[in-house]
Specification:
The complex is a heterodimer of chains A (459) and B (88).
Chain A lengths: L4 H21 L5 H19 L9 H21 L5 H27 L5 H28 L13 H21 L3 H19 L7 H22 L3 H24 L4 H10 L19 H9 L3 E6 L1 H5 L3 H13 L3 E6 L9 H8 L7 E3 H4 L8 E5 L8 H4 L18 E6 L19 E5 L2 H14 L1
Parallel strand pairs in A: 1-2, 1-4, 2-3, 4-5, 5-6
Helix pairs in contact in A: 1-2, 1-9, 4-5, 4-7, 4-8, 5-6, 5-7, 5-8, 6-7, 8-9, 11-17, 13-17
Chain B lengths: L2 H19 L7 H11 L3 H11 L35
Classes of the chains: A alpha/beta (459), B mainly alpha (88).
């Protein structure tokens, strides 16, 4: 006898809940509901599992581990700042991939040398993809958290080392399927982990979100493969859903950034994302006082605000909103221009501004707002840099070349609120900062904005 | 469930996965990725299943003596490949 029919039917219902959850997450109105549906589905599936007559030899360990894991997950998700969300997604994703890989390793031990060809194939596939997702995600986490450099890390002969490791992984995988021995699986584990690291190291900071999305899809596939190994239909369906939707999401994201996926992943190997600098130059720029900027803004007819990662770090969303409301009260036309990858990930800035209850209608996407810059008097760029860098259009050697940018340089005047002259995440200088029509106000985005707001009130 | 049935489910799920997110706007990429990330957390079930039957210290950090090695058997829906599946 297998799992009771009622359990099978409930699992089917959970699979449907997961599909509905993803569907609901694709629209702003229902996104919140979507997360809830997914959580309910996962809860039902987990609780149900204990009542389907599976062996629970190590029940105490299982329960203790679930409690510890849930506690860590809850605390870290509650504590994380919205600006650090991409890192958390990367980290959780890596843990998921690692878990799938370990499940396959344990199942390998358990199978004790017997099993069909497909069983070995999927076990090996789970180990490889899971490990790559794990080590790759850890590297993306380190990059986003800026524990390591955000610039592409190019190791000498890295291309050949990576290809060698990849070839070795495939070779050992074939060997392990033919003669299932445990030490081969361990070797496979080590090679896959190394491959994950080598694969993500050369990716430049600006491309990291795309890689996270790709690794997310990888973890989904690893979970799907582990579902085959364990003969668990729910794992198979959920993993496949994430794998497929993650792939679509990755390609859409790459398109939004104007970079073919291959350029992102192999760019550093061919040298196209190399270059860039983190040095601070001493070329002269024009800086203005908060009251200068308040006057520029206060007597303009049309103002566009360009929020970036610096705004989010300074937690200045509400102050920016206050400024926007003040300007609007003076009869000035105000819009927010949201670059697809403003913040650190597509949609990240929308989440941050929603937190400050900026009306959704005021957020204009890039394609919609770009034609309007030429008829705009003042553009206020708060803590953004790469997404308004004209080098993306003009300088073929720039790492961000080809990325669609906000055409801020066509506006009448540009004001940058920046901490320093330090380059953005992509590590390149922005010519626009030295343009005669640009005014700089250095300092923390929140402090600067507060000063501009009070000067504006005094006008 | 046999391999072909699982493969069928796999292929159909791929199409559902593609369809379900094909029209999402860029503003929702981050929440969607986060949500998808949560859904593949269902691998937890896999962890429970393998831990539930683990025997050697290598499989889990405690030893459950007195069991003979097991062999592969036809598999069930949510169960791993365990003999005595329904008798517990």
């Amino acid at each position: 006898m297998n799992t009771p029919t009622w359990a099978q039917l409930t699992n089917l219902a959970v699979a449907v809940l997961f599909i509905l959850s993803l569907k609901a997450l694709s629209s702003p109105k229902s996104a919140r509901l979507g997360t809830l549906i997914g959580a309910v589905g996962a809860l039902i599936a987990t609780v149900l599992l204990f009542f389907t007559g599976i062996e629970l030899d190590n029940l105490i360990i299982i329960v203790v581990m679930i409690v510890i894991g849930s506690a860590i997950g809850l605390v870290s998700a509650r504590r994380v700042k919205m600006t650090q969300m991409p890192q958390l997604v990367a980290l959780f994703n890596g843990v998921g991939g690692g878990a799938a890989g370990l499940v396959a390793v344990v199942e390998f031990l358990h199978a004790d040398g017997s099993g069909s060809f497909l069983f070995w194939l999927f076990t090996v596939v789970t180990v490889i993809i899971g490990s790559v997702a794990f080590s790759g995600s850890i590297v993306t986490y380190l990059k986003l958290q800026e524990i390591m450099t955000t610039r592409p890390v190019v190791i000498p002969a890295g291309k050949w080392v990576t290809m060698l490791v990849a070839a070795g992984t495939v070779g050992v995988a074939v060997w392990a399927i033919a003669t299932p021995e445990f030490w081969l699986i361990l070797l496979l584990l080590a090679l896959s982990l190394a491959f994950g690291v080598l694969f993500v190291l050369p990716v430049g900071g600006a491309d990291v979100p795309i890689v996270i999305s790709l690794l997310n899809a990888c973890t989904g596939l690893a979970v799907a493969a582990s579902g085959y190994v364990l003969n668990n239909v729910l794992l198979l369906i959920a993993g496949t859903l994430v794998g497929a939707s993650g792939t679509v999401l990755t390609s859409m994201m790459a398109k939004a950034m104007g970079r073919p996926l291959t350029a992102t992943l192999f760019g550093a190997f061919s040298g196209t994302t190399a270059g860039g600098t983190t040095e601070i130059t001493d070329r002269p720029v024009r800086s203005g006082s908060p009251s200068d900027i308040a006057i520029m803004l206060g007597y303009a007819g049309k103002v566009i605000l360009v929020p970036g990662y610096g705004l989010a770090v300074a937690q200045a969303q509400s102050t920016l909103r206050e400024l926007a409301d003040l300007l609007a009260a003076r009869g000035i036309d105000v819009d927010y221009a949201i670059h697809p990858v403003a913040g650190r990930m597509p949609g990240h800035m929308n989440v941050l501004l929603a937190e400050a209850s900026v009306p959704y209608e005021q957020l204009k996407e890039m394609d919609e707002i770009n034609p309007e810059f030429s008829s705009t008097d003042v553009v206020l760029v708060v803590g953004a840099n790469d997404v308004v860098n004209p080098a993306a259009r003009t300088d073929k050697s720039a790492p961000i070349y080809g990325m669609p940018i906000l055409d801020v340089d066509t506006a009448g005047q540009v004001v940058f609120l920046k901490r320093s002259m330090r380059p953005g995440f992509a590590g390149i200088e922005n010519e626009l900062l030295f343009d005669p029509k640009t005014t700089m106000l250095f300092g923390d985005a929140k402090e600067s904005l507060t000063k501009v707001v009070s000067s504006l009130k005094a006008l | 469930m046999d391999g072909v049935a699982l493969l069928t489910i796999f292929i159909l799920s791929v199409f559902v996965g593609f369809e379900v997110v094909s029209k999402v706007s860029t503003v929702l990429h981050t929440p969607l990725m986060s949500g998808a990330n949560a859904i593949h957390g269902i691998v937890l079930l896999g962890g429970i299943i393998v831990t539930g039957v683990a025997e050697t210290p290598l499989e889990v950090n405690s030893r459950c003596p007195g069991r003979s090695p097991r062999r592969h058997q036809p598999r069930g829906w949510i169960r791993g490949d365990r003999p005595n599946a329904g008798n517990v």
